[in-house]
Specification:
Distance between the termini: 22 Å
Order of helices and strands: HHHEEHHEEEHEHEH
Shape: globular
Radius of gyration: 17 Å
Number of helices: 8
Number of strands: 7
Strand content: 5-15%
Structural class: mainly alpha
Largest sheet: 3 strands, antiparallel
Length: 238
């Protein structure tokens, strides 16, 4: 049988991830092959994130808390923490662990007039997502965020890692989070709580995010997306 990783490198990216999701919990004999796909996928995600993050300040973007950089690439400490968490939690989805090791911390929430992105600025959004008033800027917690949550809430019977704030919080409005249920040994976990996208998985969400330049909320009303977004958008190669 041709490995998933070889198929992925041949360009069967969507088909491979569909097949990996169909596996459910990944069998031990496929673990190395699935891990290779996840690693290559998140390596490419990290490159797209770095590209978008480098362009945001040029568009006048400022962070929601004025301090955090839009992208903090993973360090050796992040990679070591991801490995230890897999054992401590009792299993991490392959895509999530690879995201910790290859992407790192992402925080595109903030203010940017060119992208119609508001956090401190007016007008505040009204209505509810999904809508272009809630651009859903890409945010991803890193391994240290999971470590902190696990220390506080890991004893709970249905633990879910808050990978990111939800669309409301990203627009400085009271809301909830985008969550991944743990422990899990699936290849690509469902990312719960994403408005308008029930059942979407982590890899699928990242594809949509890259496709929309880091702001996938605009996909719900493409005609209302800001013109500057074209400089950030790209067809995902993962």
């Amino acid at each position: 049988m041709t490995s998933y990783f070889r198929r992925y490198l041949r360009g069967e990216r969507g088909e491979v991830w569909d097949d990996l999701r169909a596996l459910g919990p990944v069998p031990d004999d496929l673990a190395e092959d699935v891990a290779a796909v996840a690693d290559e996928t998140m390596l490419r995600v990290g490159q797209h994130v770095a590209r978008i993050a480098a362009a945001l300040p040029e568009l006048g973007w400022t962070c929601s808390d004025r301090q955090v950089d839009p992208h903090l690439p993973p360090t050796d400490g992040d990679r070591a923490m991801a490995e230890s968490l897999a054992e401590k939690v009792g299993g991490l989805p392959y895509a999530l662990e690879a995201c910790f090791r290859r992407v790192g911390h992402v925080w595109f929430a903030g203010d940017c007039e060119a992208l119609l992105l508001t956090y401190h600025q007016e007008p505040a959004p009204h209505g509810e997502p999904p809508s272009p008033e809630y651009p859903d800027p890409l945010c991803l917690g890193n391994a240290y965020a999971l470590h902190s949550e696990w220390q506080d809430y890991g004893h709970e019977p249905e633990f879910a890692f808050a990978l990111a704030p939800d669309e409301y919080h990203k627009a400085n409005t009271s809301g909830a989070t985008h969550d991944i249920a743990l422990p899990s040994s699936v290849a690509d976990p469902v990312l719960a709580g994403v408005a308008g996208r029930p059942g979407i998985t982590l890899v699928e969400y990242l594809r949509e995010s890259v496709r929309w330049g880091g702001f996938p909320g605009y996909s719900f009303a493409p005609d209302l997306a800001p013109a500057a977004l074209i400089t950030l958008r790209c067809d995902p190669d993962f």
